[in-house]
């Protein structure tokens, strides 16, 4: 009987807890964590032991700080369920699943019970932003900019969340530690050491730029970018407006330009502002011109679109890149418009990073795409256009073919000999 009593008490100790936050938005399920042997908790430790009760309290605090940063109304709709599991490996993954219900969205988060603080804060900020952006999303989930959650999490960690502590403590409560330091100090140190990312790298990061030591550099550049956006007059309101507009657009770039149209009419204006502002803040110069090979590879990616094709009627679909001309011929106007808008934004971003010769060619591509966009938008609003009818004229298709030929000439041009002085010829004006 004594053994049964002891084993029963031990089983009761490890029984999972289910805790709901004060607002009701977060439901946390996990094993309770005992107090630290040292009897104290400080924000300097690099990891957390996620006790369900303290995790629910901390999620509420992060939500309140984020809402205050962007002036978001406290009217949540999507329930967030958090489950913790024992860590069986180094750096176990965090899984966030969005669930689309008939009346809205819900979110399921699975994370290890031992976790780095920065990963916890970034996961919380990402889920809270997604819930706000998806409040008016009905057909598809909103696409968040990759720099937004990283930058806002870094800003909160450096300001309002500096004293956040999640370790279980004795009955005396959480230990509050204030650290009065420059919020951008760490970001400046990282950028001065590793260099400043370009706006294209910040907007379309590769897997290599988001992994390992490069991830810290991406976080630092995102922090610089977001903090400067918040410092703009009306910047906080514009960021909130962008989040609300995201479900109406297939890409975040269009929503951003709509929200910041008074400050950044074009994406290239944002690119220039980012380069000048962050270079000044970080104190490090940034090489803005890309190598020709890098720019050509990026231009090829923009001018092609991956589609699903079938070799036969019963064959499985295969992914294959197709040129812009085929998209214009085969896609109906309603589907052409978002594709062309995204390609136009990407070309504008690339134009400011290339050599003069390639920049002139990109400008001609932009003129051709603008002509296509005018026809696509007009046809989309016209009720008498037959379904599947292409609006690409032979003249537009011929112009794109000629531009592709010019691109091929630039690609095959031999590199100049650095030992021979080169005379730079100014491009002729486009009529």
Strand content: 5-15%
Give the mean pLDDT: 80
Radius of gyration: 26 Å
From the spread of the alpha carbons, the general shape counts as globular
Helix percentage:
40-55%
Give a count of the beta strands, DSSP E runs of length 2 or more: 9
- SS-derived structural category: alpha/beta
- Strand neighbour order, sheet with most strands: 1-2-4-6-5
What profile does the largest beta sheet have?
5 strands, mixed
- H/E topology pattern: HEEEHEEEEHHHHHHHHHEEHHHH
Helical region count?
Answer: 15
Intertermini distance: 96 Å
Low-pLDDT residue spans: 3-12, 37-43, 169-180, 383-388, 418-431
Gist of the model:
By secondary structure, this protein is α/β, with parallel strands linked by helices. It is built from 15 helices and nine strands. Strand 8 and strand 9 (318-323) form a beta hairpin.
Notes on the protein architecture:
The chain has 431 residues and is of the alpha/beta class. The protein starts with a helix and ends in a 19-residue tail after the last helix. β8 and β9 form a beta hairpin. The protein has helices spanning 2-13, 52-70, 117-133, 146-158, 185-194, 199-203, 213-231, 235-245, 252-259, 267-282, 292-303, 324-330, 333-351, 356-380, 394-412, and strands spanning 17-20, 26-30, 47-49, 80-85, 95-101, 104-112, 114-116, 304-309, 318-323. Mean pLDDT is 80; it is low at 3-12, 37-43, 169-180, 383-388 and 418-431. It has a five-stranded mixed β-sheet with strand order 1-2-4-6-5, covered by helices on one side. Strands 3-7 form a two-stranded antiparallel sheet.
């Amino acid at each position: 009987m004594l053994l049964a009593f002891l084993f029963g008490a031990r089983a009761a100790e490890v029984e999972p807890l289910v805790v709901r936050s004060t607002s009701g938005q977060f439901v946390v399920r996990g094993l309770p964590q005992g107090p630290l042997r040292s009897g104290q908790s400080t924000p300097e430790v690099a990891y957390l032991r996620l006790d369900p009760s303290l995790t629910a309290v901390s999620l509420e605090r992060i939500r309140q700080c984020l809402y205050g940063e962007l002036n978001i109304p406290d009217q949540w709709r999507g329930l967030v369920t958090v489950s913790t599991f024992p860590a069986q490996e180094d750096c176990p993954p965090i899984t966030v699943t969005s669930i689309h219900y008939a009346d809205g969205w819900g979110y399921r988060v699975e994370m290890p019970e031992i976790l780095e603080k920065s990963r916890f804060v970034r996961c919380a900020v990402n889920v809270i932003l997604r819930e706000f952006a998806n409040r008016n999303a009905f057909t598809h989930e909103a696409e968040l900019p990759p720099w937004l959650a990283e930058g806002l999490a870094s800003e909160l960690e450096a300001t309002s969340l500096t004293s956040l502590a999640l370790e279980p403590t004795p009955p005396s409560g959480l230990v509050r530690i204030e650290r009065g330091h420059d919020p951008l100090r760490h970001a400046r140190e990282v950028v001065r050491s590793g260099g400043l990312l370009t706006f294209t790298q910040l907007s379309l990061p590769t897997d290599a730029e988001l992994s390992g030591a490069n991830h810290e550099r991406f976080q630092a550049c995102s922090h610089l970018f977001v903090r400067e956006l918040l410092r703009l007059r009306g910047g906080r309101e514009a960021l909130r407006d962008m989040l609300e507009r995201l479900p109406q657009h297939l890409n975040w770039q269009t929503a951003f330009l709509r929200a910041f149209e008074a400050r950044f009419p074009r994406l290239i204006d944002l690119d220039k502002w980012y380069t000048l502002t962050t270079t000044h803040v970080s104190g490090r110069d940034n090489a803005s011109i890309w190598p020709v090979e890098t720019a050509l590879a990026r231009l090829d990616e923009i001018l092609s679109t991956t589609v699903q094709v079938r070799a036969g009627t019963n064959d499985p679909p295969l992914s294959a890149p197709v040129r812009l001309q085929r998209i214009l011929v085969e896609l109906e106007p309603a589907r052409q418009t978002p594709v062309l808008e995204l390609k136009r934004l990407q070309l504008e971003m690339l134009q400011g990073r290339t050599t003069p010769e390639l920049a002139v060619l990109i400008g001609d591509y932009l003129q051709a795409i603008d002509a296509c966009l005018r026809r696509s938008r007009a046809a989309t609003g016209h009720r008498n256009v037959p379904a599947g009818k292409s609006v690409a004229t032979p003249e537009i298709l011929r112009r794109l073919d000629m531009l592709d030929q010019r691109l091929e000439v630039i690609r095959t041009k031999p590199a100049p000999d650095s030992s021979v002085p080169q005379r730079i010829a100014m491009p002729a004006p486009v009529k």
